[in-house]
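User: Sequence in, structure out. Go.
Assistant: Echoing your sequence, followed by the structure tokens.
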Amino acid sequence: MSITYRNFIGLLSFLIFAFFINFSSNNYSYFNYDSVPYAASAYILKNKDKDESHSYAWGLLEDKAPEFVFNDLCCATEYRISMYKNQESFIAQLPSYQTKSLYIYFIRITSDALKVDEYDAMRLITIFSIYLTLFFVYLIFLREKTGFLIASLPLMILYQLPSLGRLLTPDSLIFLFFTAATFFILNKKYYLAALILIASILLRQTNLIYVGLLSTFFILRKEYWVCALISFSAVSLYLTNSIIYESLGYVKTFNYGLIKIPTDFVNYSPSLTFETYLQTLKGKFMWMLMNENLNRFIALFFFQFLLVITLFISSHSDRIREILFWSLCFSLSVFLSYILIPFPDQRLYAAGLFSSAIFMLKAFCLVYKN
């Protein structure tokens, strides 16, 4: 098969997949609860009025969302009722969203540049992040056999990329950052990949773990100063971001995310013991293991991790082993992220697992060539 014909088939497949995602994402207006505090956070960047941000975000949602959707988001649980009616409590919780500061700035910039509201800005960010993710994956496998190129598409479905097309959250943007970093690593642009992963800390703070494991690569290359610089930059960015936006901290995040959501965040000061942490970790893991919608995340992780380990041990090619090393780094980062805060939600770990899978598939391409 000629390169031109092969590229045409691959490109056509990706375009059809992009059309599918666009259709499934926009066949009706979808709103999730997290979009409300994200909209309020973006509003504060422009207007500096935290009190007004509450009424603005909820008022705009009421104007845009169908009545049954708005009623669900504002009043389905005691927690949501509190966030809707209690302005002070809503504002007290905002730091957990404001620490995703890069996403908030993207919302503000998109909204101002395109003259759209914050919810539409989030929707645009989501869909264009997915399109750019597709573009980077296409570039990664452009020179490989058509089968490998097309095989990357079901991987995206497996790791829930199409379902992210509806969500007004930074998850699709994290997918883009990780896939871009994967592309640059495969092209040996390690410093650029490091910068992208460091920036991703401003999309989700636990992404610091990925930067930490990336640093081990430079230790193996005996580039100790590079490792030190990357580590210092990442930790400094993490701490600065946390201080500026008054991060709720690990204990509060763990408690309200995994143990019990309070109805009032004002003066919220929970405690956490190591025994409680272990019990929660065990409980969430067992719940995911028994849940038919969540246990595939566990199965995918162990299947992928064990397969990569096997390939790494058996391979005699330095290039293949390096690619598999990166796959292991991303898989281990997913594992450590889950151990740190075991949220039973695959979308929080999908980007890391997807990058790991891309490295694994790329290694298979090289095995096939050899």
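User: And one key feature?
Assistant: The radius of gyration is 21 Å.
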